[in-house]
Design brief:
Number of domains: 1
Helix content: 40-55%
Distance between the termini: 59 Å
Number of helices: 10
Strand content: under 5%
Structural class: mainly alpha
Largest sheet: 2 strands, antiparallel
Shape: globular
Strand order of the largest sheet: 1-4
């Protein structure tokens, strides 16, 4: 039996702000619009459900600005288009003062043979350098109780403290992403249930990040020619 799209699921009713737009970039990269829409929907629905869960538990989330324990030694799954978003932002929008540090991280990451025990290559000066396009798992990961401890696998140590993302919201996000893979509308719900997107993804630390350096150099050369 084919599921119907949840037309009445719209967390933006409570959070009506517009998503971030990059018209020139979206015109060059047709996939980018759907990815940014999906990220916006994820952020809005996460805030909505965090508000509800915080009220239910009577405590606030432990995550706070400056905390980056979950960026070290973790397996971070990313789909193909999440990876494209990282490449795009790092090469074309990353602030100049962060580019040198990111390049150094990528060089070390390559020298360490893509070890997952190291910090995420995009972690610069204790913060996510690609925060606007961080992967879904990063956007949706929140912990109640005490902050995560270094090396802790909270899925094993404190599963009850984990924030559980809404399945309805995840399904809505699939309606933005699956068409990018050429999936017909009538097949979206079925393939979402079968984990289609996750099967198309990889772990972030296994991506060929050294190729990103070439992409960054190409984008920089294009900018220099444009402003010459």
């Amino acid at each position: 039996m084919t599921h119907q799209r949840i037309h009445n699921y719209d967390p933006r009713v409570r959070h009506p702000e517009e998503r971030v737009r990059h018209p020139e970039h979206e015109a060059r990269h047709p996939w980018l619009t759907r990815l940014l829409r999906a990220y916006h929907l994820s952020d809005v629905s996460t805030r909505l459900h965090l508000d509800r869960e915080t009220a239910r538990r009577g405590v606030r989330v432990a995550c706070a600005q400056g905390c980056h324990t979950c960026c070290v030694g973790q397996h971070i799954p990313v789909s193909a288009f999440e990876a494209l978003g990282l490449w795009w932002y790092a090469a074309e929008l990353l602030p100049v003062h962060l580019r040198h540090s990111l390049r150094g991280n990528i060089a070390r990451h390559d020298a360490e043979h893509h070890e997952s025990t190291t910090a995420c290559a995009f972690l610069v000066e204790g913060a996510c350098s690609v925060y606007p396009v961080r992967p879904f798992v990063c956007r949706q990961h929140h912990t109640f109780g005490t902050p995560c401890q270094p090396g802790e696998n909270i899925h094993e140590t404190r599963p009850g403290d984990l924030f559980r993302y809404s399945n309805e919201a995840a399904r809505e996000i699939s309606w933005q992403l699956l068409p990018l893979y050429g999936v017909a509308e009538e097949d979206i719900d079925r393939l979402y249930e079968n984990g289609y997107i996750s099967r198309k993804g990889r772990l972030l630390h296994t991506l060929p990040l050294e190729h990103l350096l070439t992409h960054m150099d190409t984008a920089a050369a294009h900018r220099n020619r444009h402003h010459a």
